[in-house]
Write a structure and sequence with these properties.
The chain contains 5 helices and 15 strands. With about 290 residues, the chain is of the alpha+beta class. The strands form 4 sheets. Strands 1-2-9-7-4 form a 5-stranded antiparallel β-sheet, with no helix packed on it. It has a 4-stranded antiparallel β-sheet with strand order 6-5-3-8, with helices on one face. Strand 12 and strand 13 form a beta hairpin.
Length: about 290
């Protein structure tokens, strides 16, 4: 921070490391006209590697916000101003007594950078959570509980017929529908962009391996044996296992929409449909 008019202090982005050229402002915890205390966190700043807290160097009133939530900034860039001689406006509380006492503003719960980062990655407002830690501090467990509550809410891309575990939610975003095929475009955080970039690099520069998992197929085999004769009689072909595999894949993709998503630039596109190719042996060879 720097002083420009004796009592006006500039709030600047911390100096970034050599490998980081810019950062993203996440959430302002103070609004214009509100009092700030020395050392109090003003805003969270996200880089490709970490989420930083930007504390106030002096007490005063936040008089101007130059850069808002979600904007990209460079190191040492001015994002706000604090007046160390100003007095914050106090709004009478509707719960104040008739004697004219002023009501105190409810303090936001304390949130550590690591917990705030976890909440931001899952599109959760950490400031709105009820903290269970000491002095009302929001803990990682509070965020995880909030995630579980969100998962219990039906997803906008959830298929008809519902079912346990199929309601993984997708953050609100731009939605497009083309020929009945629903897609949602969600901007990625800076950290997720870097993760996607690194995963792509590793895919291009490293050998791709296949993993195998064993499952108990006996219930499926019993079901197939029960209907295979009637199926062959009706359709003229034998009932194989491919249809069971496709059905299982669709159910898994409904439960975990992120697996059915794709990356386009700095956005994640969630697909509300399922395109699955199955290799079938024919007289001309293997056909998908």
């Amino acid at each position: 921070m720097s002083i420009i008019e004796g009592h006006i202090i500039e709030v600047r982005v911390p100096q970034l490391s050599e490998s980081v050229s810019e950062a993203t402002l996440l959430t302002w915890h103070k609004q214009v006209g509100e009092a700030v205390a020395e050392g109090e966190n003003l805003i969270d700043v996200e880089t490709d590697k970490v989420v930083l807290e930007l504390p106030a160097s002096k007490s005063g009133v936040l008089t101007r916000i130059i850069k808002g939530n979600g904007e990209k900034v460079a190191g040492e860039e001015v994002i706000a101003q604090i007046d160390t001689q100003a007095v914050a406006k106090i709004t009478p509380s509707p719960l104040a007594g008739e004697g004219g006492g002023e009501g105190e503003k409810k303090q936001a719960p304390a949130v550590t950078p690591s917990v705030r980062k976890l909440a931001h990655e899952h599109e959760i407002d950490a400031g709105s959570l009820q903290g269970s830690g000491r002095s009302g501090r929001v803990t990682k467990g509070d965020v995880l509980n909030a995630m579980q509550q969100i998962k219990s809410t039906p997803s906008p891309l959830q298929g008809e017929g519902g079912g346990e575990g199929r309601s993984a939610t997708i953050p609100p975003s731009q939605q497009s529908i083309t020929g009945g095929r629903v897609e949602q475009r969600v901007p990625m955080t800076r950290i997720r962009q870097r993760i996607a970039e690194r995963l792509l690099q590793s895919q291009q520069n490293a050998a791709i391996l296949t993993t195998f998992n064993e499952v108990n197929m006996q219930p499926v085999m019993d079901l197939r044996n029960c209907y295979k004769d009637a199926f062959e009689k009706k359709h003229g072909i034998k009932l194989g296992f491919s249809s069971f595999f496709v059905k299982a894949a669709v159910l898994a993709l409904q439960k975990f929409p992120i697996v059915n998503a794709s990356v386009d630039g700095s956005d994640i596109i969630y697909h509300g449909y399922f395109d699955i190719g199955v290799a079938i042996g024919s007289e001309r060879g293997l056909v998908v």
